[in-house]
Amino acid sequence: MPGSHASVFGEAEDFQAALSADGVAGLLVTSRGQFRARLTQLTLDGWRLATVEEEQPRIAFVAVPAGMVLVSFPIGEGPSPVWAGVEIRNGEMITLGPGLRLHARTLGLSHWGAIHVPNHQLADYGRVLSGAGFVVPPVARWRPPRAAARQLRDLHRAASRMAEARAGALNDPQAAHGLEQQLLGALIECLSEWAE
């Protein structure tokens, strides 16, 4: 069922608990000082979106949920997490396959977005829209076309802002389905340029 919420955290344990449905099984803050993080989450029909702002360096143990592909990208100019040793730069994104277990670390201030999309839906629509074999490797860094990346970021940002402004904004199944379809089209276009 569609839903959304936004939260601010002053304790790493609470932040980890909020991210547990997204596969975060452990979190270790690696510096002293007051922990602060902001998290906006949206749940659609099988999809999950997150916008994260973190201030402290940390290491997280992540297990990508079975049947899901995790897509992550930086927001703004700051560094994004380093996923499985792969550093993502502005204009890039990373995909992590179903069931993958890895560490993700931040070096300090970090602002990033994530989309969990059902693997079968991504593969099926990718084959239909690309007209060819569409495969997402278990771990891959992508350099999407600028227009596609901008469209995906804009959709993600609009959904996050809607969630922050009105908690029940996506309770309408038609609106949630429409957002999913737009995100799926933009995501598949982004995944046409594999970097490494």
Features:
196 residues; alpha+beta; Jelly Rolls; 5-stranded antiparallel sheet; 12 strands; 30% helix; 34% strand
Using only CA atoms, what is the Rg? 16 Å
Q: What's the helical proportion of residues?
A: 25-40%
Q: How many beta-strand runs?
A: 12
Structural class: alpha+beta
CATH class: Mainly Beta
Q: Supply the CATH superfamily name.
A: Jelly Rolls
Q: Between the first and last Cα atoms, what is the distance in angstroms?
A: 35 Å
Low-pLDDT windows of residues:
none
In order across it, which strands form the biggest sheet? 1-3-4-11-6-9-12
Order of helices and strands: EHEEEEEEEEEEHEHH
Provide mean pLDDT, rounded.
89
Task: Estimate the global geometry from the Cα principal axes.
Answer: globular
Task: Specify the number of helices.
Answer: 4
User: How many structural domains in the coordinates?
Assistant: 1
Largest sheet: 7 strands, antiparallel
This entry's quaternary arrangement is single chain
Estimated share of beta-strand residues: 25-35%
- CATH fold title: Jelly Rolls
- Named at the architecture level, the CATH assignment is Sandwich
Task: Give the structure's gist in a few sentences.
With 196 residues, this protein is α+β, with helices and mostly antiparallel strands. It has helices at 12-19, 119-130, 146-165, 173-190, and strands at 3-9, 24-29, 37-43, 48-54, 58-63, 68-74, 82-83, 86-87, 93-96, 101-106, 110-118, 139-142.
Describe the fold and architecture:
It is built from 4 helices and 12 strands. The model has no long low-confidence stretch (mean pLDDT 89). It has a single domain, classed as Jelly Rolls (Sandwich), CATH 2.60.120.10. With 196 residues, it is of the alpha+beta class. It starts with a strand and ends in a 6-residue tail after the last helix. The relative contact order is 0.19. It has a 7-stranded antiparallel β-sheet, sandwiched between helices. It has a 5-stranded antiparallel β-sheet with strand order 2-5-10-7-8. α2 (119-130) packs across α4 (173-190) and α3 (146-165) runs antiparallel to α4. β7 (82-83) and β8 form a beta hairpin.
